[in-house]
Amino acid sequence: MAMADMRPPIESGCPDGFQYMHPTMRRNFGQWKYHTDPRPGVLCHVAESGEKIFTVKAGTQRILDLFTLRELTKIGDEFADGYIRFTIRSNIEFNVADEAKVEPLIKALEDAGYVVGGTKNSVTTLSHTQGWLHCDIPGTDASGVVKSMMDELIDEFKQWNMPNRVHMTTSCCQINCGGQGDIAINVQHTKPPKTDHSLVSNVCERPSVVARCPVAAIRPALVDGKPSLEVDEKKCICCGACFPPCPPMQINDAEHSKLAIWVGGNHSNARGKPTFQKLVASGIPNNPPRWPEATAVVKQILKCYKEDARDWERVGEWVERIGWPRFFELTGLPFTKYHIDNWRGARASLNASTHIRF
Ligand code: SF4
Ligand code: SF4
Predict the structure, then answer these.
(1) Ligand 2 neighbourhood includes 231 CB (under 6 angstroms)
(2) Which terminus has fewer CB within 10 Å in the chain: N or C?
(3) Is the pLDDT assigned to residue 358 strictly greater than 50?
(4) Considering the entire predicted model, what is its pTM?
(5) Rounded distance between C-alpha atoms, residue 173 and residue 153, angstroms
(6) In this structure, are residues 263 and 183 in contact, taking their beta carbons and an 8 Å threshold?
(7) How far apart are CA 28 and CA 289, in angstroms?
(8) For helices 315-322 and 292-308, what crossing angle results, to 10°?
């Protein structure tokens, strides 16, 4: 086929964000002098040019139906300047150039049932992974966990009560997206996968599945005369990495898939290396529809952090200062053998930061 006849590639991925930006933002892009926080849920950015822009932030449930989206965009057209954007933590932000529009916009949002907040030293909305709606391997419903927890933490979203910002995350499998924040609520499988040998040869590409296991616990086997896979259960660390490429290796289990809570993760920045979160609670029941046990642990950690941390200490910095033994004393969480991290590979493979090293 001649080059001229070839179909041009279909562009996919994120569109250019500039076309959707508020004109004041576009004009002053990269030229901001400072910002202030006039009240919870509102930011005021001042540009070198002297122009100002106000941002009003409200929480959403993330997985939005069409009616909710229409309602939010209608509020954006009527009470803001017609520009919105979503943050990675499922908050919606409305931009206005005129300060007089801020209070009516907040009132319109609150009248419609939305909660304004999530800025500065508050608990902002939990970021959550796709869950059942888009992904094929979740062990829990991330959206449900987020909704249940944020219902209980609504006052912490609306006010500046915390020593510093609190970012929380959920992750509905053990291996892929999500799961890194000041507090992370992650699925924890506690049993090796159960294999449906009658399906493996039809559905799975066996070499990929074997290669995927981080501890080399899977090997090819003939079961009932059919090519299949077997798992050395003594080696298996129940990570669930074999389940995505091989759905017959089912690892999700109503009883044995639990939740675990990790604390103290943070990205690196110009001043510090990344900090990796540590396991503080494991084997918590994965208990829909309200996950009361996991919510109770998160609330207890937040209560101790609020009472004991110094101003502007993040959760991880607070724990580093007081020490992990004191953290377990304060929170009353039991310390078990499962909290001892004996994985040594992190020293080499996770040594990532924005610092230049030679
Ligand atoms: S955390 Fe895992 S299960 Fe959940 S959406 Fe991401 S990849 Fe899918
Ligand atoms: S769950 Fe993880 S460790 Fe266990 S067999 Fe599957 S890939 Fe290997």
Answers:
(1) yes
(2) C
(3) no
(4) 0.89
(5) 24
(6) yes
(7) 45
(8) 70
